[in-house]
Each structure stands twice: as structure tokens, then as C-alpha cells.
Design brief:
Belongs to the Vang family. The protein is of the alpha+beta class. Helices cover 56% and strands 8% of the residues. Among the domains are: 149 residues, no CATH class; 80 residues; 122 residues, no CATH class. It is built from 14 helices and 7 strands.
């Protein structure tokens, strides 16, 4: 109860401070508008959806949704409220509708492939058993007695089928990682090979055994054993083609993000273009920093500001064409280019100064908050078990003391769209639960992490399109360039073959390591 009262008093005090500084907050919001609102696309084309007023902002698990998050959570959203708002632009609506349309066809293709593979696998495993059981069912009285060797073959068939079942489950029945635009050639060839193989065995079995009602039961069992042996060899071939062939590095690919030019290098083996694209995307979510379009608006706004300062007067009258005006503006912009580098230098220097200043304030605020929660833990250990605070309550208690400094830092570094108040509270409670330091808590916010670090709702890349001049089922070759496009940016992949390395050997005789110490007649004192 005391912990809850402390939490409520902390939030009420912080809400009281926010209420008295409402005008200052409104001015701060106007000053720190997001880069998207500067373009006019987010502010003019948006749809506001209100949730029912029955869910609190910081209540139970059902209320921990990020839909109720506002950009000004550090200043205005400090008390428990009953309503929440979320803005969705027309770009987001177009992206969602496109994903829904594309997912229908991809799901049908995926389930069709899984169904064909499952039916064929069931046929493969039931065929040897059917070869052994059909003579016992159809002409049991005419069969020759099964001796010791024949009974031993039963054990061989059972264990080989068990090994084949485990190997097939490990190699083929996996959770699919992606939906590729074309079929996997080697996998399709293996399925066709297995089908033709089993069909030929059934054809021979029907002509030579079922029609003639062969009485040599031991020969029939050996025929089933040979089928299982051949299936094991096909499984070994599948391991070589699907897994081992691509392990040896043969190509080096350079992946460049089109918007900010961030690049990475990867080594790949013998893969098709579509599978190489899948490997590139898997590494992209892990290695590339999260795509932040807000960082790209600085240069655009600076160029627009320079062009807005130019005025062109038409002295020849309205009959003159517009090409002269465009040439005049380009020439004037070229003359002003000499002084623009000074403005860029001072802008970057001022931005770095503000980032360092707000980072220092954030570090101090977080360290003080963690010191407070450590003192609370030491005091709470002496109280009754019913008055202990859980990590969620502790995070809510210390969050208002660091919220303003954290919000200012995230706005300065333009990361506010990736961190909601709910996600910060969850991360804070996680750090408190695992007894992590303030430095460990701040690591997520001081250094932009990879895409996988953030929630899927914050990703700008979910649906990808592979653009290639070559067929996507063809293998990688030297000089091939393909592009992975999403709605906001693209990844340009350039393939280079690893050169052939010729390594020679040179022998050095150990006896040749002889040295002489040369002493000078005059030495320094």
C-alpha cells in the first residue's frame, strides 16, 4: 500500500508540474515537431482512431499496448488516463492493404507446397510397409515360410525407416523463414526424383509380384529393404545439395542501403539469387542499424531553405519562357554554395553540442533514479512481504524523474518514434528485475541498435520485392547486381567472386639465424 501511495504521489506531482507548464509544453511541441510533420504528409493526411475509455495507460497486461502512445509522453502523459490516440497516415494504410493482398497468394502457395511434400513423404514411408504386408493379406497360404534371415530383415527395415523418418523431419519439416518468389530448384528436383523412384518401384512390384503372386516371401522382403536403402541414399544426396553445397564461401556481396549509404560485406556460397537475397535480409535485420527517415530530412530542409531564399524577377515581361528562370536559380544557388559549407559546419557543431549536453543530463537523471530504487529495495526488505513492490511498480515510481531528460534526448537524436512510454517502462522493469546498471539501461537509447531490437510495429521494412535482370532461380555469378526494394528504401547488392589465391612455400633453414654483435670503439658515457 505504501509503495502504491508513493507511486501515485509521484505521478500526481509530476502531473501537477505538467499542468502548470502546459503553455510551455505546447510551445515545446511546436518547436520539436517531428520531421514528418515538416513535410506536411503526416499532419495533413492522417486518421485518428480512439480506443474505448475502459483501459488504463499503465494498468494490467491488456493495457500495455503501444497504440495509446503520443510523441509527447515525457511531458503530457504522466498520469493514468482512460483514453489514448494513435495517428495512422495514408502511407501506413496503403502498406497494410498491400500486405493483406500479397499475403493471400503467398499463403496459398506455401500451403500447397507443404501439402504436396507431406503427401509424398507419407507415400514414401508407407510403400515399404505395403510391400511387406500385401502378400500376407492377398495370398498368405501360398507364401513360403519366412526363415531366420527373413525375420532379421524385418528389424533392418524398421530401424532404417526410423532413421529415415528422423532425418527427413530434421531436413525438410522446418518452420519456413520466408516466402520466396520462385520454387527452390534443388528441393523441387529432389521431390520429382523421389516420386519417379517410388513410382518405378510400385510399377515393378505390381508387374512382377502382384500379378504373378510370387511365393518367395524372403525375396519380397529384400525388395522392400532395397527400397529403404535407396531412400537413405537419396536423403544423403538431399543433405549434400541443400546444406553442404552452400557452406564453402565463393562470393562476396556488398549490401548498400540506398537512403543513407550504410554498407556491409558478406561471404556466400553457391546459392541462387533468391536464396542469396534471403540471406542478405536475415543479416540486414541483425547488422544494419534501424532505418530512421527523420535523419534524412536535415539535408532536404537545408536545401529547401537555401532555394527559398532566392528570388527571380522577370524583367522581360510575361512572354519569356521559364527555362531562363530555372537557369538563373541554379546559377544563384551555385554562387551561394561557397558559403553553405560554413552553415553546415556550424549546424553540425551546434547539434553535437546539444546532443552531448542532453546526453549528460540523461545519464545523471538515470543514475539518480537507479540510486533511488536501490535505496527503496534496501528499505523494503525490512517491511512486510505484502508491502513489497514488484519491478513494474518500481519502474513506474522512478520513471517520472527521468522521463523529461529522456524525451529531450530522444527528440534531439530523432529516435522518439521508436521508443514509446510503454516500451521504456517494460525495458526499465526488465533492468530492475535483472539487477542491471544504469549504463546497461541507457545502452538501448544512446546507441541506435539493429532492426531486431525494436518492435515489429516500428519496422519500416516487412514486405520486400526482389528486382533482378537475371532469373531469380539462377546461381550467383561475378558482377551480378540485384535490388531488394521495400516501401521506404532499397538494398543494392553487388556480387563479386572471391579470386583464386595461389599460395607458394619458401623454406628457411634454421641454421641461417646467426647474428653478430658489433661494438663501437667510442661509447657514450
Amino acid at each position: 500500500m505504501s509503495a502504491a501511495m508513493d507511486t501515485e504521489s509521484t505521478y500526481s506531482g509530476y502531473s501537477h508540474y505538467s499542468g502548470h507548464s502546459k503553455k510551455a509544453h505546447r510551445q515545446g511541441r511546436d518547436r520539436h515537431k517531428s520531421p514528418r510533420s515538416k513535410d506536411g504528409s503526416r499532419s495533413e493526411k492522417s486518421v485518428t482512431i480512439q480506443t474505448p475509455p475502459a483501459e488504463p495507460l499503465l494498468g494490467n497486461d491488456a493495457s500495455r499496448a503501444e497504440e495509446g502512445q503520443d510523441d509527447n509522453w515525457g511531458e503530457t502523459t504522466t498520469a493514468i488516463t482512460g483514453t489514448s490516440e494513435h495517428s495512422i497516415s495514408q502511407e501506413d494504410i496503403a502498406r497494410i492493404s498491400k500486405d493483406l493482398e500479397d499475403s493471400v497468394g503467398l499463403d496459398c502457395k506455401r500451403y500447397l507446397g507443404l501439402t504436396v511434400a507431406a503427401v509424398l513423404g507419407l507415400l514414401v514411408f508407407l510403400t515399404p510397409i505395403a510391400f511387406i504386408l500385401l502378400p500376407q493379406i492377398l495370398w498368405r497360404d501360398d507364401l513360403e515360410p519366412c526363415g531366420t534371415v527373413c525375420e532379421g530383415l524385418f528389424i533392418s527395415v524398421a530401424f532404417k525407416l526410423l532413421i529415415l523418418l528422423i532425418g527427413t523431419w530434421a531436413l525438410f519439416f522446418r518452420q519456413p523463414k520466408a516466402d520466396l518468389p520462385r520454387v527452390f530448384v534443388f528441393r523441387a528436383l529432389l521431390l520429382v526424383l523421389i516420386f519417379l523412384f517410388v513410382f518405378s518401384y510400385w510399377l515393378f512390384y505390381g508387374v512382377r509380384i502382384l500379378d504373378s503372386k510370387d511365393t518367395n516371401y524372403q525375396g519380397i522382403v529384400q525388395y522392400a529393404v532395397s527400397l529403404v536403402d535407396a531412400l537413405l541414399f537419396i536423403h544423403y544426396l538431399a543433405i549434400v545439395l541443400l546444406e553442404l553445397r552452400q557452406l564453402q564461401p565463393m562470393f562476396t556481396v556488398k549490401v548498400v542501403r540506398s537512403t543513407d549509404g550504410e554498407a556491409r560485406y558478406y561471404s556466400l556460397g553457391h546459392l541462387s539469387i533468391q536464396r542469396a537475397a534471403l540471406v542478405v535480409l536475415e543479416n540486414y535485420y541483425r547488422d544494419f542499424t534501424v532505418y530512421n527517415p527523420a535523419l534524412l530530412t536535415a539535408s532536404k530542409s537545408r536545401a529547401a531553405k537555401h532555394m527559398a531564399g532566392l528570388k527571380v524577377y522577370n524583367v522581360d515581361g510575361p512572354g519569356n519562357n521559364a527555362s531562363g528562370q530555372s537557369r538563373a536559380m541554379i546559377a544563384a544557388a551555385a554562387r551561394r554554395r561557397d558559403s553553405s559549407h560554413n552553415e553546415l559546419y556550424y549546424e553540425e557543431a551546434d547539434h553535437e553540442r546539444r546532443v552531448k549536453k542532453r546526453r549528460a543530463r540523461l545519464v545523471v537523471a538515470v543514475e539518480e533514479a537507479f540510486t533511488h530504487i536501490k535505496r527503496l529495495q534496501a528499505e523494503e526488505q525490512q517491511k512486510a512481504p505484502g508491502e513489497m513492490m514488484d519491478p513494474r511498480e518500481a519502474a513506474q515510481a522512478i520513471f517520472p524523474s527521468m522521463a523529461r531528460a529522456l524525451q529531450k534526448y530522444l527528440r534531439t537524436t530523432r529516435q522518439q518514434q521508436y521508443h514509446s512510454m510503454e516500451s521504456i517502462l517494460q525495458h526499465l522493469s526488465f533492468c530492475i528485475t535483472n539487477n542491471m546498471t544504469p549504463k546497461a539501461f541507457l545502452e538501448r537509447y544512446l546507441n541506435p541498435g539493429p532492426t531486431l531490437q525494436y518492435d515489429r510495429d516500428r519496422w519500416f521494412s516487412k514486405q520486400w520485392t526482389l528486382v533482378s535482370e537475371e532469373a531469380v532461380t539462377s546461381g550467383l555469378q561475378d558482377g551480378i547486381v540485384f535490388v531488394l526494394k521495400c516501401l521506404d528504401f532499397s538494398l543494392v547488392v553487388n556480387v563479386k567472386k572471391i579470386p583464386f589465391i595461389k599460395l607458394s612455400e619458401e623454406f628457411i633453414d634454421p641454421k641461417s639465424h646467426k647474428f653478430v654483435l658489433r661494438l663501437q670503439s667510442e661509447t657514450s658515457v
